[in-house]
Write a structure and sequence with these properties.
Number of strands: 7
Shape: globular
Distance between the termini: 103 Å
Radius of gyration: 31 Å
Strand content: 15-25%
Order of helices and strands: HHEEHEEEHEEH
Number of helices: 5
Helix content: 25-40%
Structural class: alpha+beta
């Protein structure tokens, strides 16, 4: 006769005969689901109109081009304005042949704040003269495209700035009206909506 008692005891089974509960490892698919819940989702983006300058062989030709560019959805209007300024630094790769920007990597953005429908921008541009005037135009058009922004006031290292090209007095907020030629060309190039005839 074979004795099973000692064998069972030797295998580590309890002497009182009560079944013991063991924790089984989670299935692989369950582990993957748990891991996926802790993965950070990518930041949401939205399309925002950014204003670049059209490339031309004639340096006297000045024309702004309105391009929808994806930017991160910001938690505040100030952060949104900062994202717009950063987008102005780089022309979209698929438009690099026909567009240019006068805000490059040398542009240093110190701060941006919003109050009374005016964006106060403190920055250092790496260009002078006509190029600086066009860079300022890019900023004014891009920021006034944001809801609640009607004008832009410029500072350099905390001091009110006098824009190049006689655009205005020191510390005076600038609007699109300060760039009449650019604004008229942009409006002329913008597509118009043709309304159907009554009863059509």
């Amino acid at each position: 006769m074979v004795a099973f008692g000692p064998l069972a005891a030797g295998c580590g089974l309890p002497q009182d005969g009560e079944p013991q509960k063991f924790a089984l490892p989670a299935p692989a698919d369950q582990a993957l689901r748990q891991a996926s819940t802790t993965t950070t989702s990518p930041a949401a983006t939205k399309l925002q109109d950014i204003y670049y300058l059209k490339n031309s062989e004639n340096e006297n030709d000045e024309e702004l081009v309105q391009v929808p560019v994806p930017i991160k959805v910001a938690a505040s209007q100030t952060d949104e304005a900062k994202a717009v300024l950063e987008a102005l630094k780089t022309v979209p790769q698929d438009r690099s042949q026909d567009l240019r920007t006068f805000l490059g990597e040398s542009t240093k953005i110190n701060s941006v704040s919003l109050q009374n429908n005016i964006a106060d921008v403190d920055l250092v541009l790496g260009v002078q003269g006509q190029a600086q005037r066009l860079a300022i135009a890019q900023i004014v058009f891009a920021l006034t495209d944001l809801e609640g922004v009607n004008a832009v006031r410029f500072f350099v290292n905390g001091e009110p700035s006098t824009p190049a090209g006689g655009l205005g007095a020191t510390g005076e907020p600038l609007t699109r009206d300060n760039f009449q030629k650019l604004n008229e060309a942009l409006l002329a190039a913008s597509p118009t909506t043709v309304l159907p005839a009554p009863g059509g």
